[in-house]
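Subject: for your reference before the review

Hello V.,

The reviewers asked for a structural picture of the protein, and I figured it would be easier to keep everything in one thread rather than splitting it across files. Below is the amino acid sequence we used in the manuscript, unchanged from the supplementary table.
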Amino acid sequence: MDRVVEEERVRDALLGLAGNPALTDELFARLVADGDEDVLYALAGREQLTAPQVRALLGVGDPAVTRYLVRTGLVPWSAVPEDHPGRALDAVIGGTAPLDTWWKAAADPDPGVRKEVAYEADAPAAVLAALAHDADPGVVRGAAGNPCLPPALLPGLARHPSTVVREAVAGNENAPAALLAALLADGGQPAPTRCGACHRREAACPDHAPGVRRVRLAAAAHPAVPPAGLAAFLDAPEAWTFAARTDLPPGFLDRLAEHPDADVRAVVAANPAVREALLRTLAADPDPEVRRAVAENPAVPLDLLVTVAAHERLPDEPAPRVESATEAELRSLAGSRVAQVRVLVADRTRLPGDLVERLAADPDPGVARRIAARPDLAPEQLADLVERHGPPVFSAAARHPGCPATVLHRVAAHPTTGRRVLRDIARHPASRAETLLRCLAAEDPDVRRYAATHPALPVTVLESLLHGPDETLALAAAENPALPETLMKRIVE
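And here is what came back from the structure prediction:
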């Protein structure tokens, strides 16, 4: 049993070594020669594989590894093995196939292959035009929704017997407004004879109403559909798909603001075309998500924004109205008695330096937490925030790219520091060896794993992890770019 455990540990170390960015070409070749399937996959997934490394992996002849390399565009068409299964399709997806190979893949007897070709974003227009007449509705659907399809074919596809094809047409970004209006009205004419529920069955459904509704909803969600035709969908659960449009006819937003679904009302609340009176009504909506959406509206009056901020917990991201505020408005908001309004200012992407200093001295922990996350904050200011506010700013400090090593160590040593903060510390470039050792002693396995991959970890510690009882840490230590070549060779041998 001990031998089995040892073999597993060595195998895990080899997997980690396969992903190590400092792996030498010699050791790469030795791992390829070893031929372990999982190790080969790990090698193929490395970033920035060299041409010789790709050739070495291709030489193994593993179909799955070859497929991955070809599909990721690492193998030129001339180098794709002739006997590789799925050669044409893999090269098409990898973007290395010549035009005749596209045609070969599009003519494959397997509809699944033809479908993959039909969905390819870089498919030649002529190939898609041919697939648009395929016998399989799933293939036609892929071509009908592909923006590379010649737009002249869309009107014909909008009359396809299957609703799945018409739905794809309604979602094509090049669909003309008149065609969308027709699909929005009744799903298109003539009436479909097949839908997603029956197109693979010999007998058709007695009623294709669900499929027709999907076609109409797809058209309703299209930004180019004439807005006047959306009247029939104002009460639909899916009205959120168009409630953000700023060109809706008068009265439509008023109706949508009374929609029974709070998700729809929230989209309306964030719509900059909403009149002010309606926005103030939505600020009193019974659902908190709707009220919060008012604060995200780019056109919200500042006084209403302050009102909402005083009573709601807002998202941890810049508010559009604060982003566009004038300097005078910004300074007024920074002096607000409502702490969350000052938080909104602290979240703004660009702030005058004096306002950053002013908010860094703010006594509110919420303001301090947002200021601590700013990339333009000086390291000494960050250290001061941690000193004055403690745990409320630990998370922001641990994620800050300029956080001093002394601060990271202090945060890691604090008894209240949670696993999420420790994970960030274990990955922080400035973390020192003593901090990482503390992370290795944490209960959370992710914290220990991140610490084991940190290049500041001493070599002696890495060696102990490679031979320790924890297989996960052995793998992580083998991935560490600071691992000496001597230890790498020992693992391989």
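For the response letter, the relevant points are probably these. Residues 2-18 form the longest helix (17 residues). Residues 98-225 form one domain.

Happy to draft the paragraph if you're swamped.

O.
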